[in-house]
What we know:
The protein is an alpha/beta fold. Helix content is 39%, strand content 17%. It has 14 helices and 8 strands. It has an 8-stranded mixed β-sheet with strand order 3-2-1-4-5-7-6-8, covered by helices on one side. The longest helix has 14 residues, at 113-126. The site of S-adenosylmethionine has 24 residues, from α3, β2 and α9.
Amino acid sequence: MAITNLNPLRYPGSKGRSLDFFANVVRESGFNGRQIVEPYAGSASVSLGLLEKGLVSSVMLFERDPLVFAFWYSAFFRTQELLESIRTVDVSLDTWKALDVYRQYETVPEDQIVQCGLAGLFFNRTNFSGVIHAGPIGGQSQSSAYGIGCRFNKVDLMKRVEAVAELGSNVEVYFGDALQALKDASLVQNDDRFFYIDPPYYTQGKKLYRYHYQFSDHENLAAVLAAANYDWVLSYDAHSVIEFLYDGMNQYRRSFRYSSRVQKVEEELLISNAALSGVEEGTQLVLFDEVDVPEVDALLENAVAAA
Ligand SMILES: C[S@@+](CC[C@H](N)C(=O)[O-])C[C@H]1O[C@@H](n2cnc3c(N)ncnc32)[C@H](O)[C@@H]1O
């Protein structure tokens, strides 16, 4: 089964549902066989999916959110301890409150990496829409039909962690700042790698991620990429400011018609310093791979505001 369906994280802005699209672009644009670097990892759905399909030789991930980084580090390199912590965790509001202390961490203490990794997974699977800084599904009163554990199926999650861990020998995971990593990368030869860059959204970033970007960060990213000595592919929410920042680069606009209980169309920009092949413009139907809970997602805004 493809990693799209086995990714343990239910990540806001995940590109997992577009894996086939990215696989086609990588093949057609001649990037296959190289290492993929994903400096804004999130659920790393594209990198890990391409690795699983054998289209890239290895994966290098960077992530700035300590709990998301700790989850991936633990999943790949402390797998048995993470599995045991999933097996034994009590999925309850009391645990949610007890783990809250890890949300204050700005870095990951070496001796607490698995606890932080579990906390990352726990908040991702028990919060509204997988948002780490949101409130718990079912609210603090747990009076809704969907309780805190409705997306935390231990057996299923353990299977997913075991499946991704199998890729670990070809994965590197770093806690750090993407912009610094992207700058540093130009100091070495990069013929055997390409970069897939999926920064926090321009309009929705603050709502979805604890670490998100101000306008100046988006500007800095554009400047770093303009000077890069490597091939990069960037995805963004379609916005005229982003089109402006990347004027002169290859830009492709894609629409997705999401099919779930709520129909919605979203537009995305794909930008690259290389001329990409395999990018057909137009509308693509993307199916959700798990039944969504619209009532839960509709509460996202209030939950984030209240957190
Ligand atoms: C749009 S999401 C990436 C989604 C990912 N492509 C996926 O398929 O799940 C952006 C990610 O960048 C992370 N992030 C935000 N600021 C960062 C920074 N300065 N350096 C590295 N990662 C950062 C966020 O925590 C979030 O996980």
